[in-house]
Amino acid sequence: MKTEMGVKVDVDVKRIKTCIKVCDRFTAEVIDSDGNTVRSIEDEYVPDCFPGTHYGDYLELDIDIETGQILNWKKPTPEQLSQLLGEEGE
């Protein structure tokens, strides 16, 4: 996406890198293929499957401006999915 900065400078913006502090209040819903909520996560640390060195406190997302896709997302492992489902102690 091209935008004009100031008076005469064109900048070709490609992505936004974010670092968002969630202060131990990460909230999410895990949804199945039918659209049903499998688990609601409230006021927890950021799960390990999220990108970056976040220490459970930050969301570090690299977002493509044109597509809105998260560029640094990796498919969660079965162990990470178990964590999201709250099964890690079973």
Task: Give the helices and strands, then pairings.
Blueprint: E1 2-5, E2 9-12, E3 15-21, E4 26-31, E5 37-44, E6 58-64, H1 78-84
Antiparallel strand pairs: 1-2, 3-6, 4-5
Walkthrough of the structure:
The structure is a single chain. The protein is mostly beta strands and 90 residues long. The protein has one domain (12-84). Helices cover 8% and strands 40% of the residues. The chain has one helix at 78-84, and strands spanning 2-5, 9-12, 15-21, 26-31, 37-44, 58-64. Strand 1 (2-5) and strand 2 form a beta hairpin. The model has no long low-confidence stretch (mean pLDDT 86).
Percent of residues in beta strands?
35-45%
Shape: elongated
Provide the helix percentage. under 10%
Biggest sheet descriptor: 2 strands, antiparallel
Structural category is mainly beta
Ranges with pLDDT <50 over ≥5 residues? none
Q: Order of strands across the biggest sheet?
A: 1-2
- Count of distinct strands: 6
Order of helices and strands: EEEEEEH
Oligomer: single chain
Rounded mean pLDDT is: 86
Number of domains: 1
Radius of gyration: 17 Å
N-C termini distance: 47 Å
